Amino acid sequence: MSGKVEGVTHPANLADGATITETYVDNVTNSIIGLDGALAKVEPIHVATSVDVSNDATENTLFTYEVPANTLGTGNIVRFDAGLYWYNNSGVVSQQLTLKLYYGSTTVSDTFDLETANTTKYRPIICNGAVVATGATDTQQAYVAWSAMTRMSVGPEYGDLDQTFAEDSTTALDFKLTGQLSNAATTVKFGLIWAVVYLVDVS
Length: 203
Fold this sequence. Notes:
Elements: H1 22-33, E1 41-48, E2 51-54, E3 60-67, E4 76-88, E5 96-103, E6 106-110, E7 114-115, E8 123-133, E9 140-149, E10 154-156, E11 160-161, E12 164-165, E13 173-181, E14 188-201
């Protein structure tokens, strides 16, 4: 999709062998869903490389993307998807992992302490969400969901969410994900497998 389309054009039938252009596809999409030039542009703006952390109880940055000044304006969204892993073969069940998401100086979301059983298996964690401008350059809302296999079951591990906050988006601010173990041990580790940050432009 090319993004915003000026008005809805109901497409005519194409002749056999005709070229399907981007404009035609946009017009078909808008005609079907009834949008009047409001097709959002979704653009990947950052793809993170993998990171592994072991035998370290300090807070480690898993990815950082500096959101440029004036990017998160009215109606715009910075969203993300990330896949992580968590491994504990220390013999202690109470090893804990805390994951945090930041926008500027605000801790947007905090998982508190995830625990996993002592095992040789790697446990997956999926995180996704968005930071949304709410009509001004200094007010935002966030939605973040964490899903983790911790002991022997799969389900959401609910963390803390700072739903409304105020950061000055007219300046460049870091959007980052961090992780921290409760105890340093060579047999306890976690890491980022992949992460993608998107800008959703609905202006």
